């Protein structure tokens, strides 16, 4: 306890942000520009300084700015009381670091003083005590969450969230859930519904949706890790027709430079969605205008709440959108770790991707989405229209594929319906859907070339072709390999190596890939291997038939 008493002092000194520290960026930019001219800087130097300032300001906003949303998450939902726990003046058992990590919250190791890191390594920090969570909040070490403390007794007064809550994770370099920030990576461990459910009072959400609190809690419990339903607060549709949750996977916030529509179903650009989320989902204080939300038939909840006409005199969002957008556009898609895939297979996959398989007809390199209006009808995608119907344009976006290995957890497509990339390839192979929504059967009947099926029409076995396409390209490497977070430090478990070798061996035997190198003998996959490989096991078994 003496250690954490000392830590509280360190945390109080480190927690320098306050509501009064909001910056009027527009006026500051103008003032600094005038000063630069007075110093005789040329246009290029001034532009470079402006770009660097925008990037740094955007990073700060992305990581630390709540836009004043603590008035909602703390003052209204009273989440801070649930975090504190009754023993510290709140309610309930409180939220310990162990509980926080279990629901997907992350800790920024760079925010921890060296003495705190040392104490954690030595096991001297009680990770089952909510008081430890408060100390971490004082250090500003919980990614995407800010605590606001009373000056007198240092008790937790309120809590707010930032963009980084859903769109950042950590590299687990210190411990699981503790490491260096990875901005733009979707946090597919984060159970948003479970976190919101900690609130002792969800009446404001229940009143918005026109249901009771028990129903709201049921909806939140059904979201699951890595998912969030932004549209339920617009249309009130919490479940699909098949009874499954209407929540969608948290998307990546990197690799968006040059990309037009930002979300799975369009809606608008990156900066549009920033304004949408900051005002309507995070519940910050700003201005937001979208008359499309006045459609009472499509968006009854939004129409009643006038969600498309938000005005706050104390606007803490609008002046920050430019810098926030600049920072996000500067986040490049990460490259897969060296050794996590086969370079020769990737080159073969690229050739198929850009030619015979026709993947690049929609996923146009190097954006890996279409330049322009990158939207398609549900028929063109070969899937149902439930989620598309919840958007103004009733279409699905061609998702950019950069950094795809970071989003393998939770599945693919907007709702994770395809567990692996091999399942995605199988979907298009079986349905034969092309850009114009014409099925493989129609193409074959009319004698027209298909998207992937044109190979099958020449007599190649469809199953073998799918396995070759899946194995050969980066597009499917996650179907037969695992992320480091799932399978150990190097991400190359014995099972993933075995699967890769067995799949390659099966294709060698079928004669579809030259024997440049003989596959090494492998043992039967170990039952101790990590659980996310079950789908890959099925793929392996299918390949061995």
* Residues in β-strands, percent: 5-15%
* Percentage of residues assigned to helices: 40-55%
Major sheet characteristics: 2 strands, parallel
Terminal-residue CA separation = 61 Å
Shape: globular
Class by alpha and beta content = mainly alpha
Unreliable runs = 1-23, 449-545
For the secondary structure, the number of strands is: 12
Major sheet: arrangement of strands: 1-5
Instruction: Report the mean per-residue pLDDT as an integer.
Output: 81
- What is the number of helices? 25
List the helices and strands and how they pair.
Elements: H1 2-14, H2 25-38, H3 43-64, H4 70-76, H5 79-84, H6 97-102, E1 107-108, H7 114-121, H8 130-138, E2 145-149, E3 156-161, H9 164-167, E4 168-170, E5 178-179, E6 181-183, H10 192-196, H11 203-209, H12 213-221, E7 227-228, H13 232-235, E8 248-249, H14 270-281, E9 288-289, H15 300-305, E10 309-310, H16 321-329, H17 343-354, E11 375-376, H18 378-381, H19 386-389, E12 396-397, H20 421-431, H21 440-446, H22 462-472, H23 484-487, H24 494-510, H25 534-544
Parallel strand pairs: 1-5
Antiparallel strand pairs: 2-3, 4-6, 7-8, 9-10, 11-12
Helix pairs in contact: 1-8, 3-16, 14-16, 17-22, 20-22, 22-24, 24-25
């Amino acid at each position: 306890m003496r250690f954490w008493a000392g830590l509280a002092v360190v945390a109080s000194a480190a927690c320098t942000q306050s509501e009064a520290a909001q910056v009027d960026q527009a006026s500051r930019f103008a003032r600094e520009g005038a000063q630069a001219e007075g110093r005789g800087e040329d246009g290029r130097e001034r532009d470079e300084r402006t770009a660097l300032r925008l990037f740094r300001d955007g990073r700060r906003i992305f990581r630390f700015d709540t836009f004043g949303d603590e008035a909602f998450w703390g003052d209204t939902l009273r989440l801070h009381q649930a975090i504190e726990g009754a023993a510290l003046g709140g309610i309930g058992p409180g939220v310990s670091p162990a509980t926080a990590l279990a629901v997907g919250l992350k800790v920024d190791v760079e925010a921890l003083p060296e003495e705190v890191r040392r104490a954690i390594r030595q096991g001297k920090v009680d990770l089952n005590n909510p008081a430890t969570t408060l100390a971490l909040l004082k250090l500003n070490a919980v990614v995407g969450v800010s605590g606001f403390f009373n000056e007198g007794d240092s008790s937790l007064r309120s809590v707010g969230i930032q963009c980084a809550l859903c769109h950042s994770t950590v590299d687990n370099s210190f411990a699981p859930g503790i490491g260096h920030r990875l901005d733009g990576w979707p946090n597919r461990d984060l159970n948003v519904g479970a976190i919101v459910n900690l609130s002792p009072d969800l009446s404001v959400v229940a009143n918005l949706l026109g249901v009771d609190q028990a129903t709201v809690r049921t909806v939140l419990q059904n979201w699951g890790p890595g998912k969030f339903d932004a549209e339920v607060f617009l249309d009130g549709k919490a479940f699909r027709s098949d009874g499954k949750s209407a929540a969608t996977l948290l998307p990546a916030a990197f690799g968006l430079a040059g990309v037009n529509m930002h979300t799975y179903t369009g809606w608008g650009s990156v900066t549009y969605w920033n304004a949408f989320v900051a005002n309507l989902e995070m519940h910050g204080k700003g201005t937001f205008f979208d008359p499309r939300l006045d459609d009472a038939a499509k968006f009854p909840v939004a129409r009643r709440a006038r969600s498309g006409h938000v005005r706050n005199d104390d606007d803490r969002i609008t002046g920050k959108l430019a810098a926030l957008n600049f920072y996000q556009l500067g986040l490049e898609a990460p490259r897969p770790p060296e050794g996590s895939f086969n370079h020769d297979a990737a080159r073969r996959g690229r050739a198929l991707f850009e030619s015979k398989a026709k993947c690049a007809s929609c996923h146009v390199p190097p954006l890996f989405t279409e330049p322009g209006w990158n939207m398609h009808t549900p028929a063109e995608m070969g899937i149902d229209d439930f989620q598309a119907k919840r958007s103004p344009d009733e279409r699905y976006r061609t998702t950019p594929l950069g950094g795809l290995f970071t989003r393998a957890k939770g599945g693919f497509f907007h709702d994770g319906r395809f567990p692996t990339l091999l399942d995605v390839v199988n979907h298009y192979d079986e349905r034969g859907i092309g850009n114009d929504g014409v099925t493989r059967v129609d193409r074959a009947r009319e004698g027209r070339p298909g998207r992937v099926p044109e190979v099958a029409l020449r007599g190649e076995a469809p199953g073998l072709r799918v396995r070759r396409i899946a194995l050969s390209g980066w597009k499917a490497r996650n179907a037969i390999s695992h992320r480091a977070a799932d399978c150990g430090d190097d991400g190359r478990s014995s099972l993933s190596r075995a699967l890769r070798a067995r799949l390659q061996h099966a294709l060698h035997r079928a004669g579809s890939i030259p024997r440049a190198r003989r596959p090494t003998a492998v043992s039967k996959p170990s039952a101790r291997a990590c659980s996310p490989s079950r789908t890959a096991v099925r793929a392996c078994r299918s390949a061995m038939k």
